[in-house]
């Protein structure tokens, strides 16, 4: 449900990243520090995404 797209075109180039999810989470980052922070935020979102945990709150059939 959550996707992370990283672009690191080569030595000396500025990396970019885009994180999005079916729940509406949509973030972008440019630069080394921001991309690293976005990767961490993406990982945290996947662990806490409301769509991923939605089935746990439903009663059994």
Structure report:
- There is one protein chain.
- The chain is built from one helix and three strands, in the order βββα.
- The chain has 61 residues and is of the alpha+beta class.
- Strand 1 and strand 2 form a beta hairpin.
- 11% of the residues are buried.
- The chain has a three-stranded antiparallel sheet with strand order 1-2-3, with helices on one face.
Large-scale geometry: elongated
User: How large is the radius of gyration?
Assistant: 15 Å
Give the strand line-up of the largest sheet. 1-2-3
What structural class do you assign from the helix and strand content?
alpha+beta
Calculate the terminal CA-CA distance, rounded to whole Å. 24 Å
Describe the structure using short key phrases.
alpha+beta, three-stranded antiparallel sheet, elongated, 28% strand, 61 residues
Task: Write the SSE topology.
Blueprint: E1 2-7, E2 16-21, E3 26-30, H1 32-48
Antiparallel strand pairs: 1-2, 2-3
Please provide a brief summary of the model:
The chain has one helix spanning 32-48; strands spanning 2-7, 16-21, 26-30. It is α+β, with helices and mostly antiparallel strands.
């Amino acid at each position: 449900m959550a996707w992370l797209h990283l672009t690191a075109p080569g030595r000396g180039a500025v990396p970019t990243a885009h994180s999005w999810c079916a729940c509406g989470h949509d973030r972008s980052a440019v630069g080394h520090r921001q991309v690293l922070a976005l990767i961490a935020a993406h990982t945290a979102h996947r662990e806490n995404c409301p769509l991923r945990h939605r089935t746990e709150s439903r009663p059994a059939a």
